[in-house]
């Protein structure tokens, strides 16, 4: 069998056999439609979708803001410690089967705090699941607390104070939500304060906004960039990101679903990988975008003609880019 033939049959089993880290996944974005509806019933939360079919039909997004509207609504069904525990266990069970040995998971607490859920219900539920999954499956799951950039910087700083009692159990601070109009520089004090407190930092940049947002993110001294698709538009920035070795946590299925790129074949991840950028593959919000982390590897391989060697490199990059002490 020629090398080309061997690479043509890349399948889920091969991808799952590669040890890998998932570095870009939002816990609330792992909520499956059936679970969301069950949580809504149990917690007395009303949703505009009455059935799983109706909810799945809503997963057709014009862009990032349209997706965020649905995500925040669906995430609002999570209210109890058990909801957070079960959600984290379900996600970790799935990605353990995908070959994930380390998961660094975003939790966007502000959505839940708005609904009156106490911070300890969120964090203790999630952290208990991380411990149990570690004991049960040997997976190393860690928590990254994220702030939402559509809010004022003061609210992000308040979040840092709120999570202070969990400082030793939170490995990093991130930032998501509506990118355009909310540039990284808006949160300069927040990221400086997070770094002063000893956290690693990461920020969504260059997903729904131009390369200049990634430049601003680099100025904040973040350790990783989430997405970074727009890096590909600027040759000087490609070189800079490659030279700095700042990893990009890319999410190809998310980028297609949110119309960041028209098709997987048009995704710049292979071009960036070829240019020496530390590219990693991740799922973002798996049930919303049609796939978990291994599905992102398989779909990218099919769309871009990635070889087994390239997929192996992407998996190796993910482990090298995680925040475990080396
Ligand atoms: N793709 C994404 N971009 C920004 N914020 C998010 N929150 C969850 N998914 C997100
Ligand atoms: Zn994301």
Automatic annotation (TrEMBL):
UniProt binding sites for Zn(2+): 24, 26, 204, 284
Catalyses which reaction(s): adenine + H2O + H(+) = hypoxanthine + NH4(+)
CC per GO annotation: cytosol
Keywords noted in UniProt: Hydrolase, Metal-binding, Nucleotide metabolism, Plasmid, Zinc
HAMAP family assigned to the protein according to its UniProt record, in alphabetical order: Adenine_deaminase
One Pfam family per UniProt: A_deaminase
Its biological purpose: Catalyzes the hydrolytic deamination of adenine to hypoxanthine. Plays an important role in the purine salvage pathway and in nitrogen catabolism.
UniProt-annotated site: Important for catalytic activity, residues: 227
Domain of life the protein comes from: Bacteria
Identification of the protein by name: Adenine deaminase
Cofactor: Zn(2+)
Any GO BP: hypoxanthine salvage
Binding residues annotated for substrate, in chain numbering: 285
GO molecular-function terms, A-Z: adenine deaminase activity; zinc ion binding
Entry EC number(s): 3.5.4.2
Domain called Adenosine deaminase: residue spans: 19-325
Cofactor remark: Binds 1 zinc ion per subunit.
InterPro entries: A_deaminase_dom, ADE, Ado/ade_deaminase, Metal_Hydrolase
Family recorded in the similarity comment: Belongs to the metallo-dependent hydrolases superfamily. Adenosine and AMP deaminases family. Adenine deaminase type 2 subfamily.
Active site positions, chain numbering: 207
Enzyme kind, highest EC tier: hydrolase
